[in-house]
Prior knowledge:
heterodimer, A: Porin, B: 6 helices
Amino acid sequence: xxxxxxxxxxxxxxxxxxxxxxxxxxxxxxxxxxxxxxxxxxxxxxxxxxxxxxxxxxxxxxxxxxxxxxxxxxxxxxxxxxxxxxxxxxxxxxxxxxxxxxxxxxxxxxxxxxxxxxxxxxxxxxxxxxxxxxxxxxxxxxxxxxxxxxxxxxxxxxxxxxxxxxxxxxxxxxxxxxxxxxxxxxxxxxxxxxxxxxxxxxxxxxxxxxxxxxxxxxxxxxxxxxxxxxxxxxxxxxxxxxxxxxxxxxxxxxxxxxxxxxxxxxxxxxxxxxxxxxxxxxxxxxxxxxxxxxxxxxxxxxxxxxxxxxxxxxxxxxxxxxxxxxxxxxxxxxxxxxxxxxxxxxxxxxxxxxxxxxxxxxxxxxxxxxxxxxxx
Amino acid sequence: xxxxxxxxxxxxxxxxxxxxxxxxxxxxxxxxxxxxxxxxxxxxxxxxxxxxxxxxxxxxxxxxxxxxxxxxxxxxxxxxxxxxxxxxxxxxxxxxxxxxxxxxxxxxxxxxxxxxxxxxxxxxxxxxxxx
Lengths: 376, 131
């Protein structure tokens, strides 16, 4: 079967499966695209993720099954207005087939975050915690700060406007999914622990947003990517149900150059109450002295709330590590079921079925994991 | 307008994939240490917590050519390519690497070809195989 036909069959299967998924009428009303929301409506960072604004706290409470007080430690530790405290704990346990069959349990994230506002629109955000240490430097690297950046915001009382960030963070690129095994993160320029030092200029508006980040190879830690580069992303919300975007990234290391261009889209379908998100990237990698694999990385994600506290994601990933060579593509079907139990506790089932060279008899792999996420 | 844009995007996507499918070749990629490292080992094996310079799981790192060369020197055997540790860990049933998802067979074939033809010179191993 040719890749075009394989891709078409898989896309159709995902869309049909999700549309037919049983659902309740009372879908969560604050679906991002259906309400023209931006990440900054809920989060303090223009990239999304991390500490929540007041609106984010309200959403966390109203979304959860047993709406507990959403503040840091349930509001038991009051903080001054200039200080926001938070943190994340995550762990997972389950079954992995690669194709060897394994049972595994592992911590994923133990991090605390503090964000202090000072001066006219200035703030400092630091996220720190333990991590797997660097070989040979165990005593110095068992803990680290994954993110730390200084931010200037044009209007500190609003969630829109101009932002400038300098420090260590992940460049804004792609759909910005939490799940790092998704192809658009792992091979799409934002891998796990891909944060590095950079300078970002970002503009957020309810109708459009733009992010440009220049970044350098981390001069302190050996990170998975050893490149300097620049990344840009722009997104325009055509109406309350549809947004489109474009992205590009150039990176250069001592061994190679990578050029990425991509497109993004989010479409909210009223009748099935379904959000479709898509990202497709084309990457040209130039390897010295010869070799220039051209890659396609794509992800289609269908998301639906089946109850205010349950979110189901069904995703289809496609990655071709060299489009000029046959049978180097892989496909993945991801299923995530999120249960927002309380304002702080999220239980997630995450499963993946992955094929190599689908239709050509390649091996399969996958996992089924139960994940627990606690937001401090 | 929205429907027209969606149709245009779909048409462009389908055309791109179709053109790609029609111009593919079998496996004529460079069997060089640079290509093996940057196109296969770095993206598949050098995740931060695995064979990165930072973590060096089992002592091996593949995220740059500088660290990949010494790592590869100990796990390739140009005289018996299919007995090389690099090849056997990619093909065995137990503790197969990468542990989260196997490599495509064509990548494994290219690695084996590189061990057979070019690893000795690329890594300056100076191995004399018995005839």
